[in-house]
Amino acid sequence: MRYEGMIIRPPSEADSYLLQITYGCSHNKCTFCGTYLGTKFRVRKLDEVLEDISMAQRFIPHTRRVFLCDGDAMLLPTDYLLKILKALTMIFPDLQRVGIYANASDILKKSDSELSELSRHKLTIAYLGLESGNDEILKKVKKGATAKDMIDAVRKAQDVGIKMSVIGLIGLGGRELSTQHAIDTAKVVNKMTPRYFSLLTLMIVPGTPLADDYKKGRLELPDPEEMVKEVRMVVENMDSPGTIFRANHASNYAPLAGTFNKDKERLLQEIDRYLNGKNEFRPEFLRGL
Ligand code: SF4
User: Fold this and answer.
1) Which of 28, 35, 49, 284 is at 20 to 30 A from 209, Cα to Cα?
2) H/E/C letters for each residue in 229-276?
3) pLDDT of 173-211, one tens digit each?
4) What's the Cα-to-Cα distance from 203 to each of 66, 89, 144, 152, 175, rounded to whole Å?
5) How far apart are alpha carbons 20 and 1 in whole angstroms?
6) Which stretches of 108-213 are assigned E, i.e. beta strand?
């Protein structure tokens, strides 16, 4: 129950016990991300993590969900993760699932049997920031992975029972690459067929290299209508049966939710109501990360 630095978690982990096992993100280079700016990546001492779990037992003994922070905790050695998972299972008898943020390389470096062992010990959901399916954009924003890496990682994890929640970032290609960004993101998601796919909308975070690009005119942001048109293009090009889709994060101009492919037509109609002015975009002052 002790934390250091900024703690973030996916919206769907709002009710989870947040257990910090690393500080920061080992990559920490994505040009749009300000979450761990100035935080040196460190692995937390195992003893300290185990102590935290014992403390949590006293306050929240009926914990059912745990989320392992920070940025890409999946990069930790499998043995270390298994020790934590075993402690969580022992301390919390009601534990149902453990979640984690993962970069593509974290997953690809682990063998199938390692991933399978983690899944067996309740690490059954991982969140991966795809951001874009377009390699030119991924390179520009220094994501550190190609679209193919991310497809392979998602498939590999899902094959052993780890549900993947994949996140795309509307607006990341700027005005210039908007169409390609939308179409390639949909194509990549179609190849992954993730359990969950969410869209967030880009917000410029002060102090990031992207904020500098924006200030110096190297990045032209789509306006709210163009952002929603980009969402429409993603939805229109998606064919990912069973994927639960969410675009209701506070950063989005048009909140949406549904399941592919059955809700695709309804989602397109809802988007069109925003584009035709029948529904109002979320006002700028209500947007947030
Ligand atoms: S991998 Fe995630 S946490 Fe790390 S810098 Fe990129 S977006 Fe931020």
Assistant:
1) 284
2) HHHHHHHHHCCCCCCEEECCCCCCCCCCEEECCCCHHHHHHHHHHHHC
3) 999 999 999 999 999 999 999 999 999 999 999 999 999
4) 28, 38, 20, 28, 14
5) 8
6) 123-131, 163-170, 196-201
Just give the CATH number of 11-282: 3.20.20.70
Atom of ligand 1 nearest to the CA of 29: 5
Spatial CA neighbour of 284 closest among 234, 223, 235, 220: 223
Residues in a beta bridge with 131: 168
Inter-residue contact 209 to 238 (CB < 8 Å): no
Q: How far is the CA of 271 from the centre of ligand 1 (A)?
A: 29
Going by the DSSP 8-state scheme, the letter that residue 76 receives in this structure is S
Q: If you average pLDDT over residues 52-79, what whole number do you get?
A: 95
Exposure string for 44-75, b = 16+ CB within 10 A, e = fewer:
beeeebeebbeebeeeeeebebbbbbbbbbbb
For ligand 1, pick from 30, 100, 169 the residue to mutate: most ligand atoms within 8 Å of CB: 30
86 touches 119 (CB < 8 A)? no
Query: Per-residue b/e over 176-215, b at no fewer than 16 CB within 10 Å?
Result: ebbebbbbbbbbbbbbbbbbbbbbbbbbbeeebbbbebbe
Spatial distance between the Cα atoms of 40 and 25, rounded to a whole number of angstroms? 8
Using DSSP, how many helices (H) and how many strands (E) does the chain show?
Answer: 10, 10
Give residue 126's Cα distance to chain centre: 8
Rg (CA), the chain: 19
Mean pLDDT of the region 90-106? 97
Indicate the top mutation candidate among 8, 23, 33 to test ligand 1's pocket, ranked by most ligand atoms within 8 A of CB: 33
Q: How far does the centroid of ligand 1 lie from the alpha carbon of residue 143, in Å?
A: 8
